[in-house]
Amino acid sequence: MRFNKETFVAGFALFSMFFGAGNLMLPPLLGLKAGDVWSQVMIGFVISAVIIPLLGIFAHARLQGTMLDFAKKVSPSFSLVYCLLVYIISIALPSPRTASVTHEMAIQPFFGTSSWLTSSVYFAFVLLFVLNRSKILGLLGKFLSPIIFIVVLSIICIGIFSIQAPIHPSDLETPIITGLLEGYQTFDAIGAVVVGGVVIISLQIKGKHDFVENRKLIINSGIVAGIGLLIIYSGMIYNGALFNTVFDQDISRTELLSGMSMKTLGNIGKVFLSVLVGLACFTTAVGIVTGTADFMKGVFGNSQKIYIVTAIIGCILGVVMGQFDVHYIIDVAVPALMLIYPITIVLILLNVLPDRLTSPLVFRAVVIITIIFSMPDFLASIGMKTQMASIMELLPFGKYSLAWLLPALIALIIMNLVTIRGKNSETTQ
Has residue 135 got a pLDDT over 80? Predict the structure, then answer.
C-alpha cells in the first residue's frame, strides 16, 4: 500500500464528496437516542455508511468504467434504468437537501434571508465548480476537505473531554439494525457509485490512463476517505451519547448539532458550525451534480453540451427542491431509499466478488430476488404499512426492513451451485 500526496488529495476529495448534510446531522441524534448502547448503533451505522460505500469505491477501482458497468451483467436496459433512477434520486433529494441544511443552519441564523436567495447563490457556486470539473479533485482535496475534517474533529475532541454528564440507558430494541438503517439516510452507498465515477473521469482528464496505477490510487484514496468517515461518524455518535442527558430526546437534528457546537466551542461555535455546514454540504452537491452531468455526457456520445445542460438542470432542480424543510426531504427520501438502496448494496457486493462467482446468471438472479423481497418495505414506506405488516412478519428480518438480505444470499449460493454443476456436466460430456 503506497500513500503519497496524490493519494491523500484524492482521498480527502472523496471524503468531502461523501460528507454532506446527512453525514453531519444523523450521527449525533443517533448517539443521543442510543445512550449506553452507542457502540452497537455505531457498528450498524459504520456497516451501511462506511464499509459498503468503501466497497463501492473498490468496485469502481476494479471496473474503471461508468456506473453503467455496475449493472451491465443484469442487462444493458436494466443498467440504464437503474442508473437513471440513482441519478434522478441523487439530484432530487440529497443534493437539494444540502442547500436546505445550509440555509437552516448557516445562513438564516445570521442573515434571515429567504431560502430562495440562499439556494440560488449556493447552486450558482455549485455550477461554477461543476463547469470547471478538471480542477475538482485538487480544490476539494487540498483546500475544502481538510477544513471540514479539522472543524468536525475539534467539536468531537472538545465534547469528549469536556462533557462529564452520565449516559442514560437506551430503549432501542435492536441498536445495530437501527444504526444500519439510519446509515441508509447518508446516501453513502449511492454516493459511492456516483462519486467514484467522478474520481475516475477526473483521473482520465488529468491524463492518467494506466489501469493498474489508477486502481491502486482509487483503492488507497478510498481507504483514506473511509478512515476519515469512520473517525468522524464514531466521534459524532459518541458525542451524541455523551449529550443524551443534556438535551431533550425530542430535539431535532439541526437543533442538536447547533447545541453541541455551542456547548463545545462556545459562542464562536455557531460561526464554526456555519462554515462547517456550508463546506460539507457544498462539496457533496458538487460531487452529485458533477457525477450526474458526467453520466449524461457519456450516454449522449461524450457531448459537452449535454454535460453543461445537465449541470444547469441539476442546479435549477436543487434551487426548487431546496425550498423544502430538511426533515421533509429526509422523510420523502425514505421510500426512494427502500427501493434503490438494497439493489445498490447487492450490486456493490457482486462487483467486488471474484468473476467466477458472479456470472451474468448470478447477477440477474440475485438482483431480481432483491427487488422482489424489498418491495414490501417500499410499499410500507409509501403508506401501505398495515397491508404489508403480515407479509413482513413472515419474512426473515422483515420486521427490521431487511427482508431482502437472506433471500439475496440464498440466491447467490444456489445460482453458483447451478453454474458449477452446469460446468461439471459440460466437462464430463
Answer: no
φ, ψ of residue 410 to 5 degrees: the values are -65, -40
Query: With 0-12 CB in 10 A as exposed, 13-18 as middle and 19+ as buried, what is 375?
Result: middle
Provide mean pLDDT across the span 86-111. 84
Residue 154 pLDDT exceeds 90: no
Count the Cβ atoms, other than its own, within 10 Å of residue 304: 9
The whole-model pTM stands at: 0.84
Cα–Cα distance measured from residue 192 to residue 225, given in angstroms and rounded to the nearest whole number: 11
Tell me which residue has cell 473517525: 231
Q: Which pLDDT belongs to residue 366?
A: 94
The pLDDT assigned to 146 comes to 79
pLDDT of 124 higher than 90: yes
What average pLDDT does this structure show over 154-159?
82
Per DSSP, the residues of 240-268 read: HHHTTTTS-TT--HHHHHHHHHHHHHTTH
Burial of residue 51 (CB within 10 Å: 0-12, 13-18, 19+) is middle
Cα 121 to the center of its chain, rounded Å: 24
* Nearest C-alpha neighbor of 282 from the set 93, 19, 26: 19
